[in-house]
Design a protein that fits this description.
By secondary structure, the chain is an all-alpha fold. The chain is 72% helix and 0% strand. Helix 1 crosses helix 2, helix 2 packs across helix 3 and helix 7 packs across helix 8. The two termini are 25 Å apart.
């Protein structure tokens, strides 16, 4: 789950593994107790998302580009083992990919997704609606019938 979140944001297997490992490391050295397993899961997701964006900022800083929400989603995914749908999802802007991943892959509610991303519930529903439409258009463009 952590790797998937990082891969969607970073678009690079090695960086995604590093971000997931860093989140696990931070869990192991954390001294404060968690309320329950759901709190652990939520905390780990937030940490891996933050770590992934820190890595993106570092990458953009090294390349001289400024990181914005718009260009954060422009990371290339070019692994042959990826499915057609995964490729299509990865063509979406990161703000759409992140809500799709949390809502569909992690089975989070709109409220939980909003809380994790620090945006409003309205923003989540709007992004989900736009993401579905954009994904449909991308799959149709690719003549994907499945």
């Amino acid at each position: 789950m952590l790797y998937a979140h990082a891969l969607v944001i970073l678009g690079n297997k090695a960086d995604a593994e590093d971000a997931a490992e860093e989140a696990i490391y931070k869990l192991l050295v954390r001294r404060l107790p968690f309320r329950d397993d759901e709190h652990v899961k939520a905390w780990l997701i937030r940490v891996v998302i933050n770590e992934s964006f820190m890595m993106l900022r570092k990458r953009k800083k090294l390349s001289g580009d400024e990181l914005t929400e718009e260009n954060a989603g422009s990371v290339e995914f070019a692994y042959p083992e990826q499915s057609e749908i995964f490729d299509a999802v990865n063509c979406l802007d990161v703000k759409y990919r992140s809500v799709l991943l949390l809502y569909y892959c992690d089975n989070m509610s709109v409220y939980e997704t909003a809380k994790k991303l620090g945006i409003s519930k309205t923003a989540v529903t709007t992004r989900l609606q736009r993401a579905r439409l954009l994904l449909k258009e991308e799959l149709e463009r690719r003549n994907f019938n499945g």
